[in-house]
Design goal:
Chain A: It comes from Mesorhizobium salmacidum. The structure holds two protein chains of two kinds. Chain A is built from two helices and seven strands; from the N terminus they run βββαββββα. By secondary structure, chain A is an alpha+beta fold. Chain A has one domain (2-87): Folate-binding superfamily (Folate-binding fold, 2-Layer Sandwich). Chain B is α/β, with parallel strands linked by helices. The N and C termini of chain B lie far apart (46 Å). Classes of the chains: A alpha+beta, B alpha/beta. Chain A binds chain B through residues 1, 12-14, 18, 20-21, 38-39, 41-48, 51, 53, 55, 69, 71-74, and chain B through 240-243, 246, 251-257, 301-306, 310, 312, 345, 401-402, 414-417.
Chain lengths: 98, 419
């Protein structure tokens, strides 16, 4: 399986670390909302089909990526930086690659 | 007379083997049942068997999407053990072990349960200490465990590289002698026949497509073979838990589905007569009665419903195998396959009432469900029949995460891919 990192291009899956369900919302660190923390830590969407998930390119540029991957076919339909293109260097690099 | 016996074998042989009854019927689904069990794998079939045998509930249907035993019950590496650290796990899996020890007689079906032992190798003194702690915890609860020295291990498994030159030298191991292997297909077939003969309808090629409801309450299922109503609907679908629960409107669960690969080599002469596990990675191996080495390693590590895996794990498993058994370098691998595992947030299962009224849930087996098959069915049947959990499965609730009562044997935290 190849993941096309927006910064580094297509790389083997062994360069990436899986961080799971990307639909979870991390509560504000000061939040004392028990239900929100419980949902963040334990509840997962687990679809058979397109899955919105977080990977880190830990063996490459170390960027955190939001990947939409089909859990039945492993087909990847989109890869983006988790925090958007906030880094100008990353944005320039991404624009270089059609 | 038992259905399968030396006498019936002889009698049928003399009559040209024309009179054997199929091990289970192929009934059409009825309009309603007392209990519907979704999932015709080991756990679902065992549940049906114990519902009929222990609780006299025989108006039961087991609905299987494919053919019987086509899922994880026929895909695992067949190891059976009860070597856990935490009391909730130890008690539950030891109950399972005791059921295994009588299972062939109980079912009148040879499940080829072979108590050949399971040896966990330690590669550092700290790991050996940790195994001593686990062994003591096991013995404290009446489970057998013994520590082995490298010399004893060498005698037990001559092919193992026990030298100081090994990549990860072996400093000892924890052995459970009563652990072993069983023939997984026979477990499914034996439970299926036992349930069928007591009146349970096993309905294959019947996919559940949705749930019938009366308000919040689950009152049945819609299937590819029509609507079926039931007083109680039990879900035992392992890796498909997420899909089935979504049909019931439960969007999130403390479960991720991951694929686990397994491998078998060409047949060899007797090579190892125990189950051995590697302590510096994730690798386990035993030898089947046909002679093939059956082995596996870690899950692929990302959500997957594909019953096949990717190459990095193949590479990792092979290198771990060669780290332990350099002599296997030129043995050919015959087959590899994958099964979808329901990885829970603490590595322990869920056998519980709910989460919706009229529903019962059995899931979260990670990749250790096979050894649990008898106790899982036994406890799930108890829970369904009595509407309360047995002491053995009372800790395995769905809301334990919410209540902070997780049962995390490995201490990995809420990260399913690490359990």
């Amino acid at each position: 399986m190849l993941i096309t990192c927006p910064y580094c291009g297509p790389r083997d899956v062994i360069e990436f670390t899986y961080q799971g369900d990307g639909n979870r919302e991390r509560p504000d660190p000061a939040s004392q909302n028990f239900e929100a923390w419980n949902a963040y830590v334990y509840d997962r969407l687990n679809p058979a089909g397109d899955h919105n998930e977080i990977w880190q390119h830990s063996g490459g540029c170390r960027a955190h990526l939001r990947v939409v991957r089909n859990t039945l076919t492993h087909e990847i339909s989109s890869v983006a930086f988790v925090r958007g293109d906030h880094s100008s260097a990353a944005r320039r690099k991404a624009e270089d690659k059609p | 007379m038992a259905e399968y016996s030396a006498l019936s074998l002889l009698a049928n042989a003399l009559k040209g083997n024309k009179d054997w009854k199929p091990a289970w019927r192929k009934p059409d689904p009825k309009a309603s049942y007392d209990v519907i069990i979704i999932g015709g794998g080991g756990h679902g079939l065992a549940t049906a068997y114990y519902l009929a045998k222990e609780h006299g509930i025989t108006n039961v249907a087991v609905l299987e999407k494919g053919w019987l035993g086509s899922g994880n019950v026929g895909r695992n590496t067949t190891a059976v053990r009860s070597n856990y650290l935490l009391p909730a796990n130890t008690r539950f899996y030891e109950h399972s072990m005791k059921l295994w020890e009588g299972l062939s007689h109980e079912l009148n079906y040879n499940v080829m349960f072979s108590q050949r032992g399971c040896l966990n190798l330690a590669h550092t003194p700290a790991q050996f200490d940790d195994y001593a702690r686990r062994g003591n915890a096991m013995r404290h609860l009446g489970v057998d465990a013994e520590l082995m020295t490298p010399a004893e291990i060498k005698r037990l498994i001559p092919a193992l590289d026990i030298s100081d030159d090994a990549r990860f030298p072996v400093v000892g191991g924890l052995m459970q002698r009563r652990a072993g292997t069983a023939r997984h297909d026979a477990v499914a077939w034996g439970y299926a026949r036992g349930a069928d003969r007591r009146g349970v309808d096993i309905i294959e090629n019947c996919e559940v497509t949705g749930f019938l409801r009366d308000g919040d309450r689950i009152t049945g299922v819609t299937t590819s073979r029509g609507d079926i109503r039931a007083k109680k609907v039990a879900v035992a679908v392992a890796g498909s838990t997420g899909r089935v629960m979504q049909l019931a409107g439960v969007e999130t669960m403390p479960i991720e589905s991951h694929v686990l690969q397994a491998f078998v080599t060409e047949s060899l002469k007797p090579f190892i007569d125990t189950v051995v596990t590697f302590g510096m990675g994730h690798f386990y191996m035993s030898q089947s009665d046909k002679g093939g080495l059956v082995y596996g390693g870690d899950i692929d590590g990302y959500n997957s419903y594909a019953q096949r895996g990717n190459l990095p794990i193949v590479d990792e498993v092979m290198s771990e195998m060669l780290a332990l058994f350099p002599g296997l370098a030129r043995v050919r691998m015959l087959r590899s396959w994958g099964g979808v595992c329901d990885m829970s947030m603490d590595g322990s299962p869920i056998i519980t009432i709910g989460p919706l009224p009229g529903m019962y849930l059995n899931c979260g087996w990670c990749y250790g469900g096979f050894k649990a098959t008898p106790a899982s069915g036994w406890c799930f049947a108890w829970t369904i029949a009595k509407d309360q959990p047995h002491d053995f499965n009372a800790p395995f609730t769905l809301d334990r995460f919410h209540r902070g009562l997780v049962i995390d044997d490995k201490g990995q935290g809420a990260n399913p891919r690490l359990h």
